[in-house]
Amino acid sequence: MSGALEKIQRQIQWNRLIAVVEEQAQTMIRTAFSTTVREAGDLSAGVFDLEGRMMAQAVTGTPGHVNSMAEAVGHFLKKFPAHTMKPGDHYITNDPWLATGHLHDLTVVSPAFRNGKIVGLFANTAHIIDIGGLGMGPEGRSVFEEGLYIPIVKCFEAGQPNDTFFDFIRAGSRTPVELEGDIYSLCACNDAGAKRLVEMMDEYRMESLDDLAAFIFDSSMSATKAEIAKLPQSVVWRGEIRSDGYEAPVTLQAAMRAEGGEIVVDFAGTSGLSTRGINVPPAYCRAYACFGLKCVIAPEIPNNWASLLPFRMEIPEGCILNAPRPYPVSVRHVIGQLIPDLMMGCLAQAIPDRVNAEGSSALWNPPLRGGSQVSGQAAEVEDFEIITFNSGGTGARPTKDGLDGIAFPSGVRTMPVEATENVAPVIFWRKELRPDSAGPGKTRGGFGQIMEIGAKKDAEFAVNAIFDRVANPPKGRFGGGEGAGGWVGLDDANGTVLRTKGFQVIPKGRHLVLKLPGGGGMGDPKQRDPALVARDVADGLVSLAEAKRVYGQG
Amino acid sequence: MSSQARLAVDIGGTFTDVAIEATTGEDQVQRWTAKVLTTPHAPELGVLEGVRVVLARAGLQPSDITLLIHGTTLATNALIERKGAPTALLTTEGFRDVLALGNESRYDQYDLNIELPQPLVPRRWRLPVTERLDNTGQVLVKLDEEAVRAWIPFMKAEGVQSLAIGFIHGFVNPVHERRAAEIIRAEWPELPISLSCEVSPEMREWERFSTTVANAYVQPLMASYLARLEAGLRSGGMTCPLFLMLSGGGLTTIETASRFPIRLVESGPAGGAIFSAHVAKQRGWGKVLSFDMGGTTAKVCLIDDFAPQASRTFEVARVGRFRKGSGLPLRIPVIEMVEIGAGGGSLAHLDSMGRIQVGPESAGADPGPACYGRGGTKPAVTDANLTLGRYDAAAFAGGSLALNTQAAEAALVEHVGKGLGLEAGMAALGVVEMVDENMANAARVHAIESAKSYEGRAIIAFGGGGPVHGYRVAEKIGVKKLLVPSGAGVGSAIGFLRAPVGYEVVKSLYTRFASFDVAGVNALLAAMSAEASKVVAEGSFGAATVEHRIGYMRYVGQGHEIAVALPVRPLVEADIAAIRAAYDAEYTRFYDRPVPGSDVEVLSFAVTVATVVEDVEPAAEVAAAPAPKPIRSQQVRDTATGVVATWQVYDRTQMAPGAEVPGPCIIAEDETSTLVGPGWTCRMDGLGYLELTRGDA
Question: Are residues B234 and B271 in the same domain?
Fold first, then answer.
């Protein structure tokens, strides 16, 4: 009977561990300074065993950090082995290749001690608002231009802040108070997790996490393998997706197969590196590839070392998904967030009734800057630097329409226009759904949005554009049509078109207009329920002409 | 006449609970209660029936009642079932999709088939008009009055029956919202109109518009229901004042409730929290955790200093298994609590990894748990409790429902035991441990989300399941004291009787401590105080009132505010430093580390005016009394150790104040059982409440 009780208690402990890391993430959201963390939720939190294997990850957070943060802990342990760690130590880095892919993400690792003995590690990652350099954008030609580079160092030693470290940090950022506050917040949330972990170990009189880790890893591994075994084995599925790129279009290619309990993805055929910051470090590629596979194949299995292990990526050297240091990587999400669509393009050949059509996918975040950093002494408004998190439509689903103006695969949220207008001298003149942008199909894609943004007093300002899917709109599947491609330009009479990437000034008196892409459709539009077409027409989302042309109605 | 008889009615999903408390000349309080079935098609009928029953029990006439307090889930149900009025939204050109876009996110990262809540107003009825204010309230673009007028024939043709008006920054300067309402009223006076600047005057357009639209959506229904109810009560001879319970814990008049019915949505659970707060006050316990576990959900609420924690954000009609972010956001004064899908009817199964999952799916009343023998084949929490030996199959619910233990065991083995190689008893243990763990985790995360700790608190447990699961949840979060009050079955209705007549006004005004706008803040607070006082005066009949003022503030750049009390008088410069110091102290208390060198910003203010709640006399110490005799014993499996042992069962009605029994044992009563786990002791206090303590607490 004690065997049965142990079996149940291990389940309870696993459940508790997930609550512990959720508490860790919520502490971060409540105490963080950067809008990117507290408003947008661009963060991740997890608990690890002493070998650096992730045991549980908070549900709250964004997929870009999945298993890139998990890999990071191993790098920390290489430099600072567990037995050298002391209570009150906190370790930090933003190395894109040792952590989550660009300098704006800080990763902090902290040991948890029980009765003077180290029992586990907590890690978290957060996207902070500024790390110096050129700022968030694609313009850097090497990582050195993209901001302050923090190797793995101790930011706190035995509970004492490392003053030299904090001096460097404050000097290197446009927002020193926020940055320092965020680092305090990251350390505090790891401490919160450690405290709860020790309470659980006391309650169950656990001397180490080894048995629990083994149980979690065994259950997760076998469940994941069982799901993979349901797929056709040893058949190669190929997929391709195109991005607008920076200086030239980029093609991502994948060949996928399920065999031996694993899914192996080979990215051979993918375009080479860019000279600008859209390159993707390999850990970030693995993160989004893994997410794309997992949400189709095994969405219920919690993230941990073992549940991620059966997804293996082969990323050739020299391709844009395996950027080496010191290539620029600041806005790696523009390419990286297309990877789940690429994965679903492969899986569509194996399990067509479980994947989506392509969506807008890459976030349409406009980094806006104004005041003297743009206009010098002629500035009419105070200096500002803001970013909002916006999204086009998601791809159609086998039995449901895509979502309108909703982030996918990213897990971030946007902030209210009223709040944005309170922190910076900008006016959002328009932010609403974009009619006729959804890819038609039996189920249609989600609609994109139209945003029109000006500065107060219609002053001059600038956008550091990082937009994609303009020349390469989201594709439909199985007879569904393409979503509308994006558009970036001005509100002038000629409809002046701007570049999709790079720093550009919006002249005085003009507004920036963004038309966000719609998601691709799925299935033959002629088979769509006429009542749904009529609803979209009545709602002003599908024009009569479009209803007639693509749906044969009206 | 010095005697008072106050009546409370709580309409729930299944039952309408009614309670009367009467004070006789010698200050003796007597209570009568009744439960009748809710009548969803015409809820006033159930209320009238319940009132008739309870009056008969009390031997009172309708005219003897001096005050009637009513709470209802009617507005909530209308939102969940989408049965409100066809509603339109008049809004700023360029922003007609604020309700559809929300915060552009998914509440579940991994579910490709996710459903998001649909806006209450379809896009074709979201009507844009040209106008625009900036964040300071200055007019950037004048209201196009012709455009407003032009929508009237369209709305009439479409059958619109209620209208919400919400403009960007309309809460800063209501001039455009009010003018638009004026134009429409002039031509269509009978159309109910809800303005965002009145319903929810706070920053964040999605939440404000959502709240305003929800108010407009339920307004015709609620106004007509309240009018029918009042007419029914009056024609039955009831002459007393009628008050409605608000989700924020105060009471208001029918007139105010009819204008802002969205403030009624969570009134039942609010009553439960007030019930707990009152019990805490009776015992003089400054920090408690209210734990209300019913048939489908459990509600956890932290109560400090005898006042339930106030909040301004709430979600209604969640579409994603109680998941946060899957409902319609409301910004109204509410009592902060967490509600999870964990109740006696919650069903258990194994997921793909063989992990036991409990809820949120519930067996409901029909077919109910497997042990009810009404055709249910899936194991519910009640089945697991029965299998563990916690209930006597013959004596459940006062013997009114004989339980089938074999059916419970079979369901547990089939859906849980088989997959894990466990027999029924251990499968039951797994289910109960998991649901207890889920509730403990909800309490943990709720505490961190509200920046409070649960350490050192006492739990007040009520609802059908609270007294059964309370001690184990307490063990899981390290709590050593648990109280099971009497009247726990109609806790919410009793809570209504303890609520003050009160009203809260919240308004946004941004200011930083470095440049604190003393004059501006004073003007705003004075106006808010006058507004709240006016509403309260309608129902307080000259009773003494008390006012509270709060500023919601945070370090500049942070995202979550902390509530800091402000003096109730015009502020002077000297107050600024004191308020700032109070903020730093609060922050450090929650998060250990203050942040050096940061300014603090205030985002909004709240003013509450409420009648003074009568002082409660702390319970008198009672002398030890002899322990009652057990009425029987049961073989019960302990969920912490798996050990099966003999637990004595006592009848609560046979227990005298001061009597003490050691755990493990069960104190049985008609509506529920209080479990006293191994290592716990149960003593009846001077109020007749069961006080459980663990170990050396």
Answer: no
